[in-house]
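Example 3.2
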Amino acid sequence: MVRSILFNALKNAGIDFVASVPCVNLIELLDEIECDEGIVHVPVTREEEGIGVCAGAYLGGKNPAMVMQNSGLGNSINALTSLDLLYRIPLLMIISHRGDLGERISAQVPMGQLTPGLLDALGVPWYSPLPVEVEDVVSGAWTLAKTSGLPVAILLGEPFWQEL
């Protein structure tokens, strides 16, 4: 179910290039992306690497998304600010928001609590949809990214996963 909701939302928004760092919550989505011949999928070792790869893909005519866990947001801040924000390169970020309400792993909580504020401090618009909203939110977020030249984040927190 997760796979089809998120995957269909990305496809319908026109995303045709995905860089990713795995997260247990996103594994079904990544499997679907990997199997789709219409999407170029580049697994990367660090989120900042994915930001750069997605910027290059956009400059090469692709519609990119970065799929990652929110702990990787800290790894990607410099790339987001010195590349995407500086040069106004749009990017859709699909972020599994660990450390949100209901998190059972205490090590996830500090970054989970900081994630929305970090995105706000960067000036990166973000949305936290429920499954019934994800199609419209992903489409609108990618449109906003393209028209504004900004990265836009979709945070998928515990309420999202509980609804599925």
